[in-house]
Amino acid sequence: MSEQQITVRRLQDRQGANGATAVAHPNIALIKYWGKRDERLFLPWTSSLSMTLDIFPTTTRVHLDAEASDDEVTFNGVPAAGEERRRIAGFLDLVRRRAGLTHRAVVDTRNTVPTGAGLASSASGFAALAVAAAAAYGLDLDGTGLSRLARRGSGSASRSIFGGFAVWNAGNPTAPPAEADLSSCAEPVRTGDLDPALVIAVVNAGPKEVSSRAAMRRTVETSPLFEPWAASSRDDLTEMRAALLRGDLDTVGEIAERNSLGMHATMLGARPAVRYLAPASLTVLDSVLGLRRDGIPAYATMDAGPNVKVLCRRTDADRVAEAVRDAAAGGTVHIAGPGQGARLVDAGGR
Ligand code: DP6
Q1: 91 in ligand 1 pocket by Cβ < 6 Å?
Q2: Which of 58, 194, 304, 327 is 20 to 30 A from residue 28's alpha carbon, by CA?
Q3: 155: Cβ below 6 Å to ligand 1?
Q4: Who's near 212: CB < 8 A, 6+ residues apart?
Q5: Alpha-carbon gap, residue 283 to 327, rounded angstroms
Q6: What tens digit of pLDDT does each residue of 311-346 get?
């Protein structure tokens, strides 16, 4: 039995058999996940690699209610509705089927990241939900099993199960879905001596107009640039793993920047185009180029939103934050380091 399984059991006992609380952090992909080959099973076209952050945790409590006729879901104390609620209830159905239980659940989620702003709140959200729901329903899963489960809520959540750097394997694309389902999960990535920071410039914290799920579907279906990007992304991953192992932050950053810009190019090639980058995003990108000209290694990566994350050495983070803050006029800037994987905590969140 793995250490994580032992921890799950022990906490389950302490928290009572019918409830569990988990904490998870968002992750930022340095090699992006963009496009599903199986939408039901959340199987991606390509493998991706990310750093789990040490800021913006999500805390989720799942409590089983034998009397309830429906799941009750709240986000920061506000009842969830519509698509948001449907996604959580669908995920709980999956957990219930696996556990052989029919009890409904009360789910209370506390999010500290601006939701829907391309800052991966669904990654920390579904990672925390997977860990809490698995424990509450008595599923005995190790990190691999939890990652596979979290993937079914949101692809990027599979990576937030692990701390530091994690790679989400696409799984064999020619294998039957049931087999690929088993092999598509995240695992920790070995790195050399790195002391990285991600400086996050929030240029717009509002919700996005096109969800990443809809945007990636449109890109796969209509963008002539998708296949070439997917092919180069596979090479990027091989090169990045080698650079991480060498502790070569500059090469890691160069690859991350080109991989992200390539992903945005695939979206711009979609019909109709999806454009997440705003004028302020480009100003921040210019400031990153300026930092490099001044001899400071700093590399940008952007997700399904206008915000820019800048990878740099921790020792340069304050200087990078200052440059980026000036560029993101009016925006907020956060500095993150590598954080822990998702885990069970006591009901007070500790
Ligand atoms: C641009 O994981 O949010 O952040 O699987 O449909 O829930 P679903 O999508 P999601 O997509 C994240 C896309 C990305 C890149 C990444 O995190 O790898």
Answers
A1: no
A2: 327
A3: yes
A4: 118, 303, 304
A5: 6
A6: 999 999 999 999 999 998 888 999 999 999 999 998
Task: Read off the pLDDT of residues 125-169 as tens digits, 9 standing for 90 and up.
Answer: 999 999 999 999 999 999 999 999 999 999 999 999 999 999 999
Dig out the tokens for 245 from the structure.
């192992």
Ligand 1 within 6 A of CB of 119: no
CA 155–ligand 1 middle distance (angstroms): 6
Strand-by-strand arrangement of the 196-202 sheet = 298-302, 308-313, 196-202, 332-336
> 339 C-alpha vs ligand 1 centroid, how far in Å?
19
d(C-alpha 43, C-alpha 35), whole Å:
9
Cα(12) to ligand 1 centroid in Å equals 30
Stretch (H or E) spanning 214: helix 212-222
- Distance CA(25)–CA(125), nearest Å, equals 8
Testing ligand 1's pocket by substitution, the residue of 36, 156, 165, 303 carrying the most ligand atoms inside 8 A of its CB is: 156
Is the CB of 307 within 6 Å of ligand 1? no
Angle, CA of 155, 156 and 158, to the nearest 5°: 80
Kindly indicate the confidence band of residue 173, based on its pLDDT and cuts at 50, 70 and 90: confident
pTM, entire model: 0.94
